[in-house]
Amino acid sequence: MSAPPKEPQYCARCGVAYEPLQEYCLECGERLPAGRGTVGLLAAAWQRRLPWYPGDWVWPALLFLVVAIVATAISATTTTGSGTTIVATQPGVTLGTGTHGSGTLPSAPKPTVTTGPLPKAPGAPSTPSATTPAPTAAAGLALWPAKGTAYTDVLESVALTSGRAIAVARAHAAKAAGLPKAGVLVSTDYKSLHPGYYVVFSGVFPTPAAASAALAAAHARGFPDAYVARVTHP
Questions:
Q1: What does the angle CA 130 – CA 133 – CA 134 come to, to the nearest 5 degrees?
Q2: pTM for this structure?
Q3: Closest C-alpha to 167, from 193, 199, 140
Q4: Nearest to residue 53, comparing CAs of 34, 67, 68?
Q5: How far apart are CA 11 and CA 16, in angstroms?
Q6: Domains parsed from the chain with CATH numbers
Q7: Which residues on adjacent β-strands are paired with residue 31?
Q8: In the chain, at which end, N or C, are there fewer CB atoms within 10 A of the end residue's CB?
Q9: Which of 31, 59, 20 lies closest to 223, judged by CA?
């Protein structure tokens, strides 16, 4: 009796099915997740239910989130159980008759408070205006050029539903690893990219060859699935 056929697995980038031992997608060239160990089993289970798989990084991120939630709940419970409210009371003071002719002291005058802007210290920078536009990229990360077409090394793609914070954290990790011009862009804003993702990139290159030459550094510094992509404004 022959063994039942295995359910197909799908590429996280383009959704094309691939074989169990296949290393790269034949359609888009995406490096496929390994099928060994606990991470491989979890990845296979995910792909049997959902056509899109964000990557193996999602499992340690979920584990960290669960641990943080549990630790926060334990801390809140401990603080609530041990908290004690102390109310200070002051006994009344009885006064004898004196020159004021009453048993209470006269009320002290209320201080006058003048409201207004505080004086600036010499050499202090001026306060920014409320109309100053906020920066479009996280502090310390590179911004993509406003015009033209260029090439870059895509380090990771994070679904918009997963939140921008994950993509920004990965871009900071790339910068800390020494990769040039690490930043985050939204793929939906660029017609040459697949919509729906935060794209963690490194470098802005004029040619595909220049971007390919920088891939080795990205692969060696913690981003083995990095690939070259063309970024074109709409």
A1: 105
A2: 0.43
A3: 199
A4: 34
A5: 5
A6: 9-58 (no CATH), 149-232 (3.30.70.1070)
A7: 24
A8: N
A9: 31
